[in-house]
Write a structure and sequence with these properties.
The structure holds two protein chains of two kinds. Chain A is an alpha+beta fold. Helix content of chain A is 46%, strand content 18%. Chain A folds into six domains: 82 residues, no CATH class; 127 residues, Calcium-transporting ATPase, cytoplasmic transduction domain A; 89 residues, no CATH class; 187 residues, HAD superfamily/HAD-like (Rossmann fold, 3-Layer(aba) Sandwich), CATH 3.40.50.1000; 247 residues, Calcium-transporting ATPase, cytoplasmic domain N, CATH 3.40.1110; 236 residues, no CATH class. Chain A has a nine-stranded mixed sheet, with helices on both faces. The two termini of chain A are 51 Å apart. In chain B, strands 1-11-3-9-8 form a five-stranded antiparallel sheet. A four-stranded antiparallel sheet of chain B has the order 2-10-6-7, with no helix packed on it. Chain B has a two-stranded antiparallel sheet with strand order 4-5. Classes of the chains: A alpha+beta, B alpha+beta. Chain B: InterPro entries: CDC50/LEM3_fam. Chain B: This is ALA-interacting subunit.
Amino acid sequence: MDQVENFPNFSSSMNNSSRNSTFGHSGSKPVSYGSKGADSGALSMSQKEISDEDARLVYVDDPERTNERFEFSGNSIRTSKYSIITFLPRNLFEQFHRVAYIYFLIIAILNQLPQLAVFGRGVSILPLAFVLFVTAVKDAFEDWRRHKSDKVENNRIASVMVDGQFQGKKWKDVKVGEIVKIAANETIPCDIVLLSTSDPTGVAYVQTTNLDGESNLKTRYAKQETQAKVPEKERFIGLIKCEKPNRNIYGFQGNMEVDGKRLSLGSSNIVLRGCELKNTNWAVGVAVYCGHETKAMLNNSGAPSKRSQLETHMNLEIIMLSVFLVALCSVTSVCAAIWLKSHKNELDLMPYYRKLDFSEGEMESYQYYGWGLEILFTFLKSVIVFQVMIPISLYISMELVRVGQAYFMIRDSRMYDAATNSRFQCRALNINEDLGQIKYVFSDKTGTLTENKMEFQCASIWGVDYSSTEASLEHGHQAECSAQVDGKVLKPKMKVKVNQKLLQLSKNSFRNVEGKQIYDFFLALAACNTIVPLVVDTSDPTVKLIDYQGESPDEQALAYAAAAYGFMLIERTSGHIVIDIHGKRQRFNVLGLHEFDSDRKRMSVILGYTDNSVKLFVKGADTSMLSVIDKSLNAEILRATETHLHSYSSLGLRTLVIGMWDLSVSEFDQWHFAFEAASTALLGRAALLRKVASNVENNLCILGATAIEDKLQKGVPESIESLRTAGIKVWVLTGDKQETAISIGYSSKLLTNSMTQIIINSNNRESCRRHLQNALVKSRQPLAASAVPNNFEGFSDAIGTPIALIIDGTSLVYILDSELEEELFELASRCSVVLCCRVAPLQKAGIVALVKKRTADMTLAIGDGANDVSMIQMADVGVGISGQEGRQAVMASDFAMGQFRFLVPLLFIHGHWNYQRLGYMIIYNFYRNAIIVLVLFWYVLFTAYTVTTAINEWSSMLYSIIYTAFPTIVVGILDKDLSKRILLKYPQLYGAGQRREAYNKKLFWVTMADTFWQSIVVFFVPLFAYWGSTVDISSIGDLWTLSVVILVNLHLAMDIIRWNWVIHAVIWGSIVATVICVMIIDAIPTFSGYWAIFNTAATGLFWLCLLGILIAALLPRFAVKYIYQYYYPSDIQISREAEKFANQRVIGGNRQIEMYPIPDGPPR
Amino acid sequence: MNSNYSRFTQQELPAWQPILTPRWVITIFTLIALVFIPVGLAAFSASQRVVEVEYEYDTECIPDSYKDNATAYIKDDNTNKTCTQKLSIKSKMQAPIFVYYQLDNFYQNHRRYVKSRSDEQLRTKDKENDVSSCSPEDYVTINNKSEPIVPCGLIAWSLFNDTYKIQNKDKEVVINKTNIAWASDRTTKFGSDVYPKNFQASGLIGGAKLDPTKPLSEQEDLIVWMRTAALPKFRKLYGKIETDLEANDEIVVVIENNYNTYEFGGKKSLVLSTATWIGGRNNFLGIAYVVIGSMSLLLALGFLLLYILKPRPLGDPTYLSWNKNPGGLR
């Protein structure tokens, strides 16, 4: 489809616009999830005058007056949460936000009441105290580290104006209104408005790595009016009125009154805390935001916390367990009531009631409270005894397991990016297991699928295509494009492939019209940008390298390309640029610069030549440029250029169109007047500047077009292939245009030729609806025709021919937030690939929300730029690529990594493992706690329902802390169901997580049934074996303790897949530790169970019981496990066998075949 | 990078990876059967070898005139509590013969009862005032002074006080009442310098009285009684007979029926029993072992049969769900 036809409303509105008409941008469209809507919102914001109550008044060099009302925060920062005094209360307060902890606290408090004292007072608090203590130690350690870094930060020295001269002052003492001087390479202590810099034009270069991770230099300006003043000589008097502190690091609004003049201040006049001053000897500024009010600190909040799906599901089962708990307690209290009722007349003389013994006066000390209260107390007592039914230790275990899993994810060498020396980062610690259940992947394109390292590929100049593909990178050519400065050779840092023909032509320019156009073309590339050339020393003292620093990688690529063709940008100040053109240094005055914005999608520069002629150079996206180019001029060339553009973008290249215009004196004056007015305007300056720009960028003469290759990252096609084989739906959401997106789709194997493509580009609601309905009909057809299943396609939605949906942002405007969403979702869920192009950042989030709202399937968003932040935060799992475009995506993400291809090991290996491990761990923890509760419960039935525990109270408290806690944590961190190799070889194995095979209702109930059986065996074997014997409570209690502990450890051991030495140590170690603990407890003479274990363990009956319990309890599980694994093997099971026996097959083939005869055909 | 690479961080530690192959499973079940059936049979025969004579005397030792009012009889200090019964020994009982009293429906594990003791007081002389957990059997008022009871609490208070004498062929059979309690209790848990004080001195007497001149560590009946039974039906060792009783011997037991179980419907029995390695007579474990062993054998045979009839090649990729039938399973 033709480009222009895709946006008819856009181009038509442009055609109608005349030079003087206001820019008919599309902000009036009804947009909800569109960037345009967001932009127009910002526009209205900027038009507002800062009212006095919304403003912050800063008296320059007068901190006393500025801080008169003590409303501005000082510059000392505190990222730590606690002080020594507040640590205990605050930390406890925060910890008790967990409902489970409150439950355990209530139980511990109940236990303190004398009537309910089931356990000793100390013992009952033990588990809760342990959990609280572990968490508190962890928090305290983290906070101590923050304290340390705060201290270092606060005590750094800044040079501050005090009594007319600059003096060293600690950062924490800097106040709003003070004048601060920063030397080169120093870090800025607070947000300052620049007053003057060492550069005569007032330019300062700053590096914002600490703020947004971008390593390129940014330019900031001091106002001309303040640049001349020297604060040391005369006191600076001025008033800055600016907006209240906010977290927008790219925006600043304010004005400054100096010498009766009002100067407007914008984001280019402020330097933020944490930035470093570069390439500038010094800069002087006034502090406007300090400490916690600086933009850097306001942005310091971490990623929003997400909750894992597993944990959400787990809560349902926890409710189930609470129901069990209430049921057990009710049974106990009802039985107790019946017992009391039937023995009512016997209580008088019973050794355990002895009512008769009490004379009337002392009745209150006789602890019988009547029938009703006794029942209530029995109920509460049973809650206390059976409390571990709700596994408190599970929460802390899960946290520890996730930390352990994160450690291994971080250390995985498969996810280490050697190119940027960056490891995998785990920023969120509570959604590890979600990585194993992903069903949808939403990916950004630029910087995520592609490297975002732009390479200049082709140029179309004056209708002639020069592509550099056949060009060579010979050494001789590189030497030519260098410049001599002060006897030193300057070379561009990056080498670019050049087209020999074009190189020759560019050298012989000025001779003909063609040469003139080439000259202008490269001049535009070198000049029309915001690149700052940096001169870097090399090992060779005579050679220096020029490093082009800029915010846009496209501009960098173009500047390097221009340098390679002999147009080397050497110097840029705010007033002029110096370009070395084939060895001749030329100086141009920069009269005006209209920066790029997302509405105009172009930028322009007005250059004043030495002969006083003025030229306007414009470069921009083809759609926006073609609408401002004068079509009556050079129609042939325009057509040729359009053809080239089309072929470039179908190769997957990013295209830009270059245009220029000779400004006449009157045109220049008119522009100059408007520009001056706009740039000093106080109201809506941004909008005014934009209007000035779009007025002058009109009726241009076309120069040509450039094509830049955005190279695919390594391993992207293979990764996408794997993800799709695993049944993950990959959606690509990109801001690029359709052709580029589709071509990247092909090169990344997202799209294949066997796919049916459905393309939706509509510009109104009705046609959207029509398109969607047609597409739905189309998508249903192959489904019906898929009678013959395709054995080679591994897609879970096994349809005949896979469908690819391609939809653009304009259509999405009408679909999102309307009733068409439903149809889009239905259509999209039938497609194996969805490609959304031209989407705005908020639309990306809208698409993620569309899927998230309608399915329970897990979504993952991966991106690298600021425009992906909303999508990353919206998705269940957000992954940031720490790449070229800065760190905002990383800051918002849950996981961050260097390359897109790391998604495969992240999901298939770690996600799979994490999910399997944690799912098993939760089920196991339920089992582990339920079994001991049931054993306690059975015993209660034989104690006249009085909730006596045979198991020593210390043992029952240590049970979930020491006896059984460590194995489950270690297994949760270390056990692997399958090796990395197999998991990568069969991506389909990932489906186990998507189908929730490791944790589901069925597994829960099966495990609970098993728990029931095991508890019966544990309890009743000793009961019958010791019935009517001399056995005492402590002895049989010790037997129950040991059998339960050994049983649950063996149960775990049976399910462990890989036994390495750590697991061996921890499993057998806990059994040994338990035995030691039981022995220690029984060696305390003041406990009633003194020496019980030693006496009973000396009898044969004890050991026979123990062995019998273990075997009988595990027998059904073992048999069922075997039948299930052997006769109904899961994919994981088969792969596991394949992994183990594959090697043996090769080595001892004959023997193996004998043992496992391969049947002639499949058995079923 | 190489410095960071280790088998541990890459989770590639050498590991043993067991897989439930039919061979393994059948072997394991057969092994269980091979161990459990013989052990079960041995346990069963050991239990069968135990000779046990049990005589429940709680109703028989009430004179006919008191049959309807056993409580009144047992509470009356003036009634004659002696009760004689002939028992015949079915088969030879080899020394040592253990003499037990067995109580049924007596909840020594009742929460109120279990807690009503002071282990500190039992062990240390200085801790005789440590009676806070013993209420109501904590202090007794003597001469308007509150004196602590040693040993305090309901357990000690309700000490069993029936006594047995056994005659065989008109000769007194000696019942050895020493070393009937655990050595650990005698040496460590019960103090050798702690003497009974104010015991059973209040109005209501729950059971036996103690000799105030003997330290607690020598009061073995008390020590045995204080090891509270786990279950409502239990035996406690009364003493040991160190001579054999021959088959068809007619022994005469003379019982002093003092202990009040009539109040709450408890049962009392006298038990003479020999012991083997498995303890007293209890067939349960033997039978359970044989059952578990037989089940394992059955499972082993069943799995063997299944394996011969329907084997599955292990780790065959053709069985993977996506290789079998993409549409079939889902």
